[in-house]
Amino acid sequence: MKLETLDALLAARAAKRAVALVTALDGHSEWVVEPGAPPSGLPADLLEAVRQALASDRSGVVEHDGRDWFVQAHNPPLRMLIVGAVHITQALAPMAAMAGYEVTVIDPRRGFAAAERFPGVRVDGDWPDEALERLVPDARTAVVTLTHDPKLDDPALHVALRSEAFYIGCLGSRRTHAARLDRLRNAGFDDADCARLHGPAGLDLGARSPAEIAVSVLAETVRALRRPEG
Amino acid sequence: MADPATPGSGELSGDVEDVLATARAWKREGRGVALATVVSTWGSSPRPPGSQLLVDGEGKFLGSVSGGCIEGAVIREAVEAIGDGRPRVLEFGVSDEQAWEVGLACGGKVRVLVERVEDPA
Fold first, then answer.
1. Distance CA B28, CA B47 (A)
2. How confident is the model at residue B6 (pLDDT cuts 50, 70, 90)?
3. Predicted confidence band of residue B2 (pLDDT cuts 50, 70, 90)
4. In Å, how far is A96's CA from the nearest CA of chain B?
5. What ipTM does the predicted assembly reach?
6. pLDDT (tens digit, 9 = 90+) per residue, B13-42?
7. Of A128, A166, B107, B115, which sits 20 to 30 A from A32 (CA to CA)?
8. What is the band of B114 on the pLDDT scale with cuts at 50, 70, 90?
9. What is the largest CA-CA distance in chain A?
């Protein structure tokens, strides 16, 4: 691999652009390919392989012109936006970071988001809807609301439901969640919107402690990403 | 390297360790560097295509291409690739004659591309 190829991959990642690295297995030929602006001279079938690799987030070997080419998907980082700097968040944020997510904790309440409670985690003190509008959840973003407080959670959900977020989880009992869905319907969201919400958030593991609940929420997030058909 | 205040900001497709950014940092330090990448797998194998192992000229490494079964052999080849600059494709599996030594206990097969990171000409 050329050093300039490595630099191009790192630059794409810093700019959150999806690219693929196409490498000939028998020699030094390699391309960094952005599907919207492919390099001239890239064969059409390799460009199609790039599109498929990025869409499925899977890398693999394709044959072209009698040679094997490795197409490696370099999608932008996964992100998790957590609304509520609560006790569960203290467990969920480091676990999600370890699973490869770029984590932001959002909480406008002074004291809650104190940086010392979240060492090494990005903490955002804006109102959740403003923070989410600014952070623009995309198809590689999970949004989790953990405050239990409709004043904080609901505005965040409004933004999340208008985004492409692949996972939207809301902490709270079934009764709390039913009330939440009623409020969202009154705000104009339809059944298809409400069906995108995972509530109560987390796989049913019988979790009790904050850390166990964090495991169940992260597990549900992984399933939504890797097995989106359900 | 990524901003130390934001762990996870450098990770790629869910990899825990930031192999590519570390490769760049090692190059900046003037070290010889090779990347080993899983390009295809058959049957059950622990790491999917795209998984990477970073190796320097002294065999120091980061990342993984298996559950630890073949890393030793891949690191040896990577150190050689840093020396001679020749990319190589390695295959490992239970049917391999070296199976007892460096095979995959899970019964899968993997193909690994090993290549040196080249300085600009």
1. 28
2. very low
3. very low
4. 8
5. 0.81
6. 445 468 999 999 999 999 999 999 999 998
7. A166
8. very high
9. 63
**Residue A221 near residue A96, CB atoms below 8 Å:** yes
CB B65 within 8 A of CB B74: yes
Instruction: Report the sign of the C-alpha dihedral through residues B99, B104, B105, B106, in that order.
Output: negative
pLDDT tens-digit map of A120-168: 789 999 999 999 999 999 999 999 999 989 999 999 999 999 999 999 9
B20 and A9 within 8 Å at the Cβ level: the answer is: yes
Superfamily of the domain at A78-226 = NAD(P)-binding Rossmann-like Domain (3.40.50.720)
What share of chain A in percent tops pLDDT 90?
A: 82
Residue A200, preceding peptide bond in cis (omega within 30° of 0): yes
Domain ranges of chain A: 3-74, 78-226
Question: Which pair of tokens denotes residue B31?
Answer: 């070290």
Q: Which residues of A fall within a CB distance of 8 Å from B118?
A: 1-3, 28
- Which residues in chain A have Cβ-Cβ distances shorter than 8 Å to B24? 6-7, 10
Domains of chain B by residue range: 31-116
